[in-house]
């Protein structure tokens, strides 16, 4: 694959879970970086109201600490260009390990810009 081109490697099913997304990230190998676009659904409660379902499309840059430095630099520098090329993305997330990519961590980042 050409290092100067960003290609779509796989599409997830509309009903795929966030665990499926994480499983794919971990399956690419400990030295591989990836970009991931995910439509994240979660519960949100404004003050004085009941929980409502929210969705946020996020773009994740997945660059594990174990990836080669050249690859991490390439992904990091391309992330800004990718951000500008995509419309409708509600959150940008950079993750270097499964803790940063975890449901809880992503949920916290998505909720951080919600009104309470």
UniProtKB/TrEMBL annotation:
| Glycosyltransferase as UniProt keyword | no
Which stretches make up the ADF-H domain?
Answer: 1-111
GO MF annotations, alphabetized = actin binding
- InterPro entries noted in UniProt: ADF-H (IPR002108), ADF-H/Gelsolin-like_dom_sf (IPR029006), ADF/Cofilin (IPR017904)
According to the UniProt record, one GO cellular component term is: actin cytoskeleton
Example GO BP: actin filament depolymerization
| SMART domains, A to Z | ADF
Q: Which UniProt keywords apply?
A: Actin-binding
UniProt record similarity statement: Belongs to the actin-binding proteins ADF family.
Q: What is this protein called?
A: Cofilin/actin-depolymerizing factor
Q: Which organism is it from?
A: Chionoecetes opilio
High-level lineage: Eukaryota, Metazoa, Ecdysozoa, Arthropoda, Crustacea
